[in-house]
Design goal:
With about 180 residues, this protein is of the alpha/beta class. About 50% of the residues lie in helices and about 10% in strands. Strands 2-1-3-4-5 form a five-stranded mixed sheet, sandwiched between helices. β1, α1 and β2 form a beta-alpha-beta unit. The longest helix is centred in the middle third of the chain and has 34 residues.
Length: about 180
């Protein structure tokens, strides 16, 4: 039996395209989620996975409808395989019930992992090059060095409350304490 799974990321997106494709592919039952793919909790997917029996196939319109990440996608497909359940992705043409489909999925998975590693290496190289040029990542400091000195003098004079200092400097109390605890 073919069991379909459809997911749209937001409530105003329409899953009809996916439903039509899944029904055309012969899915007898279709589960759905209207939730971001990044969310770990997807009730429709959990229900679909628990509904599957050996010999069934889970069918999705595209790979990105199923997996949060490559690691998650491969984990789900490996779990399905261990349960003797096939996996079919209509757009990419994967069908793990065939040996060719298994091979294509494994090659695709390896290429996607390679791409992720290359992106990580490029990102790290770019950050290292920026640090070598003296650039620091992250958000800019809220206060300049002279503002921090002024704030410390106001605090040391004991003529101003912390609330007054925060209002003058346009900062919150946690920011005040962070600057005060930092080495001058």
């Amino acid at each position: 039996m073919k069991i379909g799974y459809a997911r749209v990321s937001t409530l105003d997106q329409n899953p009809e395209l996916q439903f039509d494709a899944l029904q055309t592919a012969g899915c007898e039952k279709i589960f759905q989620d209207k939730i971001s793919g990044a969310k770990a909790e997807r009730p429709g997917l959990a229900e679909a996975l628990s509904y599957l029996r050996p010999g069934d196939s889970l069918v999705v319109w595209r790979l990105d409808r199923l997996g949060r990440s490559l690691k998650h996608l491969i984990g789900v497909v490996e779990d399905l395989e261990s349960r003797k359940v096939g996996f079919i992705s209509l757009q990419e043409g994967f069908d793990t019930t065939t040996s060719g489909g298994k091979l294509i999925f494994q090659i695709f998975g390896a290429l996607a992992e390679f791409e992720r590693n290359v992106i990580r290496e490029r990102t790290n190289a770019g950050l290292a090059a920026a640090r070598a040029r003296g650039r620091k990542g992250g958000r800019k400091e809220k206060l300049t060095k002279s503002q921090v000195e002024t704030m410390r003098k106001m605090s040391a004079s004991r003529q101003h409350t912390i609330a007054e200092i925060c209002r003058v400097m346009s900062i919150t109390k946690p920011t005040y304490y962070r600057y005060m605890e930092a080495k001058p």
